[in-house]
Amino acid sequence: MNMPRATRTWVMIGSAAAIAVLGAPPIFTALARPKQPPIVEAPPPPPPPPGPVALPSRSLADAAAFQAWLERQDALSPAFVDGPSVARALKDVSAQSSPALVRDAVAYGAVAALQDQAWVAEIRKAADTPDNRRLMVGYLIADARYALIFKGADGAAGLAQQAIGAPALKLFDQGKAVRQASYDIQHQEWSKAEVADRPGRLAMVEQQGKGQLPDAADHVAALQAASTGGAPLPLKADPVAAPYPPLVAESLQLAAVAALGEASDDMYDRLAGLAGDERGAEQCLHEAKLNLYQCLAVAKPHYEDVYCMGQHAMSDAAACLVTAVGLPLPLPPVVPAPPAPAAPKKKVTHRRRT
Description:
15 helices, about 350 residues, mainly alpha
């Protein structure tokens, strides 16, 4: 039905007024309301990163004690002047048990291994979640070889090997110099005098052989800095290919747990218990000590104490550490054989002609 134009106009005006007063019908409301954006859930927070690279404080103290022990022996002068100077040197070089020396050497090797930043970064990259870190710590404690699967382990192994082996080689030579001094001082009258209280001297050395290396708190700060990327130890080392002897592998084992940020002070006893090889370095050092005790038991003059110290307390112990990290000992000098005596000349006789 057609409505006049005027009527249509009034109808439209009326409808608009009704909408204004009563509100728009549902269809108009739906068209007028803007669409709500889709609800986007925030991503979960990233897992917490690993803690800082750090060794247990007691492991740093162990490493410091080993470093100081090496320095004391390196500074020992073979120029002995009297009996008390021999007694003091003997006390210094014999002050450690075999298990303590191995544990402290491994801690020192771990400090050196942590200086390989590429290896440390590979370990931390794999430890991207707390669950992964927990699993990795378990693998490391179960088997030291797990630390060797990460890229850069050969560089870390080279550093650990040199940290222990290079000063041990110097100690080996120092022991030979002290042993030579036992011959050189025999022209001095004091060296031929019998050691006072020989049983007491032997008992002192045996008691020292059951203890720990003396503390060296003044070395700890530098070693802590070296283990966390600060001032490095003065080492020159080439990468070393596997397989590794126990002292090197155990150094990397401890260093890897520290690289994960999981080597807390509460873990010290568990981690320190991993160091040692009863059939290797520990047994070798134990035998060197027994040889020292047997030597001192029969030594009487001071120059014989000097011989026992240089040979067994220094060179023999050093040889144990050198071989335990896979380095060769220097070969003894080749003594040329004396020339063979000339064969006697055959006497020539002439037959007389007849």
